[in-house]
Structure formats: structure tokens, C-alpha cells
Amino acid sequence: MKKWWIVLLIVLGAVLTVAGLIAAAFIAIFALFGNGHVLEPLDGPGMVYEVVVDEIEYVRNDHVNGGIYRLKATRGATVQIEMERRANETAEPVRLTAEADEALLQKIGEAVRDGGLIAAGNHPERDPYRMPDVTARLTIVQPYQKTVVTSLMELSEREQTGWNTVVALLEQALDEPEYRLELGGDRYEYENARETYHAGELVELYRTQELPDAAYAFLLDGEPVSCRVDEQRGIAIVFLMPAHDAALVCVPAESPSTDAN
């Protein structure tokens, strides 16, 4: 009788041991593949929590005249996109918001993966003390990983293509409006002129046609704007693009409408 109980206990112990081993194996497999799935860069919907693009463009390579452009996509019930544009450090920022579905993050994930940008985030910078003409930063925040890629890194053509694709996807989803700048019949007298600009963008034009000294002024929608003489390129006209279509005209300086200038 005693032997029967001993055998039963041995059998029960063996069964429990095997069951424990099987359970432990399942837990290990789940942990291995589950965590691997979460940690795998941008694998599937919901893996990206935030994508931020910061671009700081320097005009004449100095901080004072620099412009700041920022795009940010954050995952929530929908993907929230925010944009901020400042023509310089003292300018009033222009902000826009938009919504997109999660397919946007899937496309961004594909661009990041195809461009090898996660690996690019581990590259050393060329020279962190050198000020380039354009400084940009791409930050990708995932549940367990944060990747930062900057323009100071040695990016391959593949990596730069991935970066450009991410920016293009965000800009297309935002659909930021552009406004026309009318220059009338004088358009071809201006160097650097574009037909449209974003609100808050720094517009810097050069009037190449010779004008009598101190006999001109420039009005944007009837208001005088800053201008100066550039010995190499002519007359430089600088202003911030308003959030509407605008017209720039050149008038004689003695005109009553330009007294404020």
C-alpha cells in the first residue's frame, strides 16, 4: 500500500515537473518573440509613437537670420501632426495642425526601415562643432527605443533618401497652404523670386534692375518693407510672407504713401 502512494507521488511529481517545463518554455518563447516584435524597429502599426523633424536653415550662415521649421507626428487615437515655422528667432511662430490615420506611420516605418535610419542613428558625427549651412534632426521615438539622426552625420545616399521620404510623407499629410506673391510686370527684375510662399516664411528678393539712388521704396500690400543695397546682387528686399496672397510693388520714395519708410 505504501509503495502505491510512493509511485503515485512520483508520477504526480513527474507530471507537474513536465507541465512546469512546458509552461516555462511557452513563457520563454512568448517573451523572446513578443519582446523581439516590440523591439524590432517600426514593425507594424502602432510601433512608432512619435516622429519629429527639426530643420534649422541659416541664411548667410548666421544664427540671427536663421529660420526654424518643425514637423511632429504623434500617435494617438489618430496621428496628430503639428507644424511650427519661425523665420527667425524673434518672429512670431506660424503653427498648423492636422490629423492622419495610422497608415501614415506604417509608410514612415517602411521609409525608416528601407533607409536604414535606425542604424544611421548610431553613426558618429563628422564634427559636432562645425556649423553647417543646414542643420536638421530626425527623431523617431518608439516604445522601447529612441533614434536621433542629424545632418552632421555621414549619411549614405540610401539613408538620406529615407530621411527625405519621411519629411515628404509628413508634409503631404499636413498639406500646408502656400500663398501667391504678385510682382506684376516687374517679376523678371527680381532674383530669387518664387510664385508662392508659406505663411511666416522669410522672403528675401534681389532687385537686379538699376534704380536711381534714394528714389525707390517697396510696399507689400501698401505697407513699406525693409530694403538695403547689396553691392554684389542689387537691392535686397526682406519681409515675412503673410498668411494670404500679397503684392509687392516698387514706388518712388517721395510718394506720400512711403513717408513711414
Task: Set out the fold topology.
Elements: H1 2-39, E1 50-57, E2 67-75, E3 79-86, E4 94-100, H2 103-115, H3 117-120, E5 134-142, E6 145-150, H4 157-174, E7 178-182, E8 190-191, E9 196-198, E10 202-207, E11 217-220, E12 223-224, E13 226-230, E14 234-240, E15 246-251
Parallel strand pairs: 7-15
Antiparallel strand pairs: 1-2, 1-5, 2-3, 3-4, 5-6, 7-9, 8-10, 10-14, 11-12, 11-15, 13-14
Helix pairs in contact: 2-4
Write a structural description.
- The protein has 261 residues and is an alpha+beta fold.
- 28% of the residues lie in helices and 33% in strands.
- The protein has 4 helices and 15 strands.
- The chain has helices at residues 2-39, 103-115, 117-120, 157-174; strands spanning 50-57, 67-75, 79-86, 94-100, 134-142, 145-150, 178-182, 190-191, 196-198, 202-207, 217-220, 223-224, 226-230, 234-240, 246-251.
- The strands form 3 sheets. It has a 6-stranded antiparallel sheet with strand order 4-3-2-1-5-6. A 5-stranded mixed sheet has the order 9-7-15-11-12, with no helix packed on it. The chain has a 4-stranded antiparallel sheet with strand order 8-10-14-13, with no helix packed on it.
- Strand 13 (226-230) and strand 14 (234-240) form a beta hairpin.
- The termini are far apart.
- 19% of the residues are buried.
- Residues 26-43, 58-65 and 255-261 have low confidence and may be disordered.
